[in-house]
Amino acid sequence: MADQDDSEKTEEPTHRKLDEAQKKGDVVKSQEISTWFVMTGAAVAIALLAPSSASSLAGSLKIFLAQPGAIPMDAEHLRHIWLAVGRDAFGAVIAPLGVLVGAALFGHLIQHAPVFTAESMKPKLSKISPKEGMKRLFGPKGLMNLAKGVVKLAVVGTVCFLIVWPERDQLSLMMTWDVALLLPMFQALTLKVFAGVIAVMTIVAALDYLFERLQWMKKQRMSIQEVKDEYKQMEGDPTVKAKLRQIRVERGRKRMMAAVPTATVIITNPTHYAVALRYEQGMGAPVVVAKGVDAVAFRIREVGQEHDIPIIENPPLARALHATVQIDEEIKPEHYKAVAEVIGYVMRLKAKMSRSGRR
Q1: Strand partners, 11
Q2: Rounded-to-integer distance, Cα 159 and Cα 291, Å
Q3: Is the pLDDT of residue 1 over 50?
């Protein structure tokens, strides 16, 4: 039944479906992205903080290594020594630990905004069901995660081997070196390994994120019936209705402005109203191709000027046409005479300009 349901989900998810999923805490998550940031944070901590942390820790342990016999064995002295060592150890690790925690948090935040939902806290039998647990482990997703883990381990292991193997002779000699020389060399080799692994993990993390996003989008797919049901719900939403109305108005306005260059004349108020009329021989009556007030009227006049459409000031006629005639409608019979006079004037003006041009 589940397979059948999945096969019916052929439609791409709507914005509403994606928003609802994210509100429930169902977001795209790539563990490899977080791992990449943690590894980068570790490399930064090793490069910048490891020397000072190691020096601080070595200083506190010096008495144990250099003069172990001089350590007082009474309880009071031992307590003070261990408190001092603990304090130094805490100071040595707190900064690197802070870098790692910050990197881990950033690795999650860069993928998605924080989501606070009680959905994940609700008790579900599937979480404690052995059967569901086996499905998670040995189902398609579990096997895919296992395959990804094996491939990642093989790739990272190969990179580490290729970096460390050429240094094998030096590593065997390190055991005889002084600590002052050993630590810088070990730090350099560790950073070398981290640099190689981070370079490879950059590709792994990018591919894993793309894969997880594709899987997430596939999971959010909807059936045709779900899309229809959602559309019906949205139609009853006042906010959505207002948005759809606004979209329709904007589209209608764009179509109207595109028709202004076809107008024969634009009649204005002169500033508050503008009505664009188109008339050609054979038409029953002039047709209103655009109309508007204030900002829209200004834009109609502006487009008209750009296309050399005659603009005639006639406030009463402009107001009357705007109030009584809709877009793409013929003017009313009561406006025939006034409009005919305007169009006649425009025709005579064009004819006069044409004769002047021939001369």
Answers
A1: 222
A2: 70
A3: no
Phi, then psi, of 23 in degrees rounded to 5 = -65, -30
Q: Which helix (H) or strand (E) holds 268?
A: strand 265-268
Number of C-beta neighbours around residue 300 at 10 A? 27
Q: Which whole-number Å values give the CA distances from 83 to 55, 80, 88, 110, 286, in the listed order?
A: 18, 5, 9, 39, 97
The strand order across the sheet containing 311-313 reads 287-293, 273-278, 265-268, 311-313
What domain range is 318 assigned to?
A: 259-358
What is the SS3 assignment for 329?
A: coil
Phi, psi of 260 (to 5 degrees): -60, -40
- Cα–Cα distance list, 355 to 87, 307, 359 (Å): 101, 21, 7
How far apart (Å, rounded) are the C-alpha atoms in residues 240 and 246?
10
> What's 264's domain CATH number?
3.40.1690.10
Whole-number mean pLDDT of the chain? Answer: 82
Distance CA 179, CA 163 (A): 23
Higher model confidence: residue 260 or residue 46? 260
Higher pLDDT, 115 or 358: 115
Residue with tokens 């877009």: 327
Beta carbons of 288 and 328 less than 8 angstroms apart: yes
- Considering the domain architecture, whether residues 114 and 204 belong to the same structural domain is answered as yes
Q: State whether 27 and 140 are in the same domain.
A: yes
**Same domain membership, residue 283 and residue 187:** no
Measured CA to CA, the distance from residue 190 to residue 11 in angstroms comes to: 49
Q: Is the dihedral of CA 334, 340, 345, 346 positive or negative?
A: positive
Last residue of a domain, one of 187, 210, 230: 230
Give the torsion sign (CA, 224, 227, 230, 232).
negative
Q: Work out the average pLDDT over 8-31.
A: 82
Contact of 91 with 49, CB cutoff 8 Å:
no
* Domain identity same for 60 and 134: yes
Closest CA to 274 of 342, 329, 326, 321: 321
Residue 53 CA to residue 90 CA, distance in Å, equals 10
Q: Does 235 map to a domain?
A: no
268 in Cβ contact with 283 (< 8 Å): no
From the centroid of its chain, how far is CA 170?
A: 48
